[in-house]
Write a structure and sequence with these properties.
The complex is a heterodimer. Chain A is an alpha/beta fold. Chain A has a single domain, classed as DsrEFH-like (Hypothetical Protein Ychn, Chain: A, 3-Layer(aba) Sandwich). Chain A has helices at residues 14-29, 40-45, 62-74, 80-89, 99-105, 122-129; strands at residues 5-9, 34-38, 93-98, 118-120, 133-136. In chain A, β3 (93-98), α5 (99-105) and β4 (118-120) form a beta-alpha-beta unit. Chain A is globular. Chain B has a single domain (9-77), classed as Translation Initiation Factor IF3, CATH 3.30.110.40. The chains are: A alpha/beta, B alpha+beta.
Chain lengths: 137, 79
Amino acid sequence: MDESLNLVLFSGTDDKLQAAAILAAGAAALGRPVNVFLQYWALDAFRADRIDRDHGLAPEAGVEGRGHVDALRAAGQASWAETMLQAKELGGVDIQACSLSMDLLGLEQTDLDPLVDGVEGVTAFYLNAGAGQIVFI
Amino acid sequence: MSPLVEIDERVDARGLACPMPIVKTAQAMKMLASGQVLEVVATDAGAVKDFAAWSKSTGNELLEADSDGAVYRFVIRKK
């Protein structure tokens, strides 16, 4: 299974970012190349001064969902940032910030957490994705 | 009963949730030489199918997969 997994991350809530990190880590563990493209609120969550903050949950989580998420974290589940770091340590995971979203948020690469490898436009993302799967979260 | 296999490295993934048992296994496997054997223990219920799938996909040989009810144990030989 060598086909790349290409994740476009738009949502910046902790639950969706955790789901994305798990998808990335699972693919990396199988030796598949993973390309992550950070847009909008997902990019915002990767800011160096914000990555460790609470990014909330998707609306459908509700109070009950918050309870479930907190329980899993209390049981020792790694944060999405830690999961993403573990995925990168396996090799083959590249995380790029969308240049348009950088402009939108008024960011420089130095504002981003070291997990982010660079800044690129959508064309470069598509080129790297090739015929691999593209998933939008 | 299969003969005892010599274990070269052990991974304790007990208490870790998906995908960490597989991620830790993949990380540990990278450090082994071809033919060496890794033993993993985990408590994640999804691990049973995950380890079968991971071994099949990566070509590493799943030698043993058992459970004492609470803990799952996997023995994998690196291809």
